[in-house]
């Protein structure tokens, strides 16, 4: 999700039906972008996240 998406999301009321539709659309776009990345980029991203999670629970 980019900054423009987040700004638009903040402008929509929490009780508005468009908000949920907008969130679903944003998540679909994010997942599609991740699928389009090549294998090496996805692997590196997962390794970074594993290290961050391990540091949080190590202490």
Automatic annotation (TrEMBL):
This is Cft2 family RNA processing exonuclease. GO terms for molecular function: exonuclease activity. The keyword Hydrolase applies. It comes from Paenibacillus peoriae. Keywords: Exonuclease, Hydrolase, Nuclease. The keyword Hydrolase applies.
């Amino acid at each position: 999700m980019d900054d423009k998406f987040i700004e638009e999301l903040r402008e929509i009321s929490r009780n508005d039906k468009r908000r949920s539709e907008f969130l679903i659309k944003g998540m679909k776009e994010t997942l599609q972008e991740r699928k389009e990345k090549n294998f090496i980029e996805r692997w590196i991203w997962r390794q970074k996240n594993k290290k961050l999670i391990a540091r949080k629970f190590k202490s």
